[in-house]
Design goal:
Layout lengths: L1 E6 L3 H11 L4 H4 L2 E6 L4 H8 L4 E7 L9 H8 L4 E5 L12 E3 L5 H17 L3 E5 L4 E5 L3 E7 L4 E6 L3 E4 L3 H6 L5 E5 L2 E4 L3 E5 L4 E4 L4 E2 L7 H5 L2
Length: about 230
Amino acid sequence: MIKIILVDNDERNYLTLKSIIGKLDFLYTKNLVIKWYKTYNCELNDTINDCGIKKIYLINNRYQLKEDNLANYIRNIDYHSELILLGKKYQSWIKNIFDFIPNIYEYPKKILLDLKQILDNYYIGKMFKYKNRKYSLSIYYENILYIYRDTCTRKAVIVTDNNEFYLGIPLNEIKILLDNRFCQVHRACFLNICRVQEYNWANNYFILDNGNKIDLLSKKYRYDIERI
């Protein structure tokens, strides 16, 4: 999951951001959550300090704390998430800014381009890698559809667009090697949620974006999936 965090008291900019998100590739939107804060508060502070979550900040750079600029405060705590500044004045001393957009009329076009570039860098080209003494495997995450435990061979099976790969390791060990686009949907299955077309919780199956129907869906994990 990636959080897009907007700090701005203008509702028009929130609605603009929602519209922009709707134009992004399906691969991305399934893993995005928008959080809008009109002011600095305790919830925002907790989010800033949660370094286990990938974040993209869009900050109106006029926001000031008692002793610091909000954008600079964020950067001092969270150096790795992306920071886009909105507003008329650029604070050159704020570190590691992805972009500065001074003109409100440029927001739709420039924010869309910025988000595409950030998400491309984050998702495209990342690989699942596994190696032991006899075997080495590298697969792009976006090509993995799902991973399940085969009860006959007792092996983990990585199902991709064009192939299946059998690994003699438990699913829990594979889980450590996955990124946050993979979620557990069954006790014996991890699913690339960016490749799902439909969940059918009533009948315990999901349909992939290639049209394949897979009977490995458990209601036990419904809440975890729906809150993403």
